[in-house]
User: Fold this.
Amino acid sequence: MRAVRLTSWKHDPELVDVAQPEPGPGQVLVRVGGAGACHSDLHLLHDFDGSKVAFSPPFTLGHENAGWVHAVGPGVTGVEIGAAVAVYGPWGCGRCHRCRQSMENYCERGREIGAGGGGLGLDGGMAEFLLVPDARLLVPLGDVDPAEAAPLTDAGLTPYHAVKRSLSLLLPGSTAVVIGAGGLGHMAIQMLKALCPATVVAVDTSAGALDLAARMGADHTVVASDAAAAEIGDLTRGKGVDVVIDLVGVDATLALAASVARPLGHVTLVGIGGGSFPFSFFTAAYEVSFATTYWGSQAELMEVLALARAGHLRPHIERFTLDQAPQVYRDLAEGRILGRAVIVPRPRP
Assistant:
């Protein structure tokens, strides 16, 4: 079968032929119906050298995956051949305390395992078939199209977790700011509008992304610039922002987030742009909480899919073939992808 692989650090992805995997005991083979191209993959391709993660190439890319059950290994029960499924992305040990809480994203044995999941050290879904190591990692899709479900497993799940941890602050009269209205941001906006009464402000450098944000329900859009903090201050009538979700993570966006957050507010950093913010007694309003997040729990993925089935969440996707995947990553790096790019290796069976 064909697969899009990272063959070495700081190397462009390659489309190559590899053997189709066979499911062993407890494993499930999924016919891939959609694999999202994530901006974080660009860090794997261009920035990492093996010192930042516990795994190394070669492996097949694609950590946002959905499709149909094609075959099961010995001992697998309760999984129907042909069923549409989403694949929960972070693959933990399945046995530690966090994993038992459905939070394999925070597996206590992550370093020991030496991989983050399919597409993150192990073979991912940018191929015709994906070998899933345990049936526990599958979530039924129902009538959600796998190509639309694939980005929900990360680009949907990650901002959902970030939004959910701050819902107690998002009361009537509150304001939430989403910095970065791209693949994750346009879904964060929809979630905020579905889950709370807060006024939602989207910030981005791209006019196209801000237009998409408005179409997704953002109440206000702000161009990222030196004037952004003052504009957001005016929108809140000087009160400040209750929740900021930074999906970019560079110095400028972190500084903006800190400058607009009101006392007792939350700033959640999701983007891995490599920026930092100097923390001291006077660098932010009183009792502003700063946090990072990584993905979300499998239970939260079920909630994300429920939002999609109810019509409250619809990813804006562009579909591409496996042959187009290397160019997709070039376009993603140059900011030419609006929303989420999804590689569709196989048609519906």
The first helix runs from residue 39 to 46. The chain has a mean pLDDT of 95. The chain has two domains: 2-154+296-343, 166-292. The CA atoms of residues 186 and 215 lie 9 Å apart.
